[in-house]
Amino acid sequence: LRAKWACVEKRESSSDPRRGVIEMDYRLTNQDGDTVFSCRSVNLIERRR
Hints:
Order of helices and strands: EEE
Number of strands: 3
């Protein structure tokens, strides 16, 4: 299996400016290059100071 991921969006949280929101895409492919799993996650993280 091969894993790839990418950040597709990042922004400041509208409810708490000390936090940020990032959206990540994840994809797993098999030895033939076929996608066997994919998902998108939305994560709330602490921003750098």
